[in-house]
Amino acid sequence: MLLGDDEDFDPHLLDEDAFVGEVQTFEFWFGAVEGYLTGRPYGRSAATPEIELDDIRQDRLITTLCNYCVGETAALEGASGLVRLAPNHHAKVFMATQVVDEARHLEVFLRRLGDLGVTDTDAEIRKRANPALLDFKDSLLALVDGGEWDAAVFAQNVILESMEFTVFRSHAENADPITAEVLHGVISDERRHFGFGENDLGRRMAADPSRRPRLQEVKEQLDAIVLSVFEGALDDLEVPMADRPRLGQEYLETVERLGLT
Question: Among the four residues 14, 34, 36, 146, which has the most C-beta atoms within 10 Å?
Answer without folding.
Answer: 36
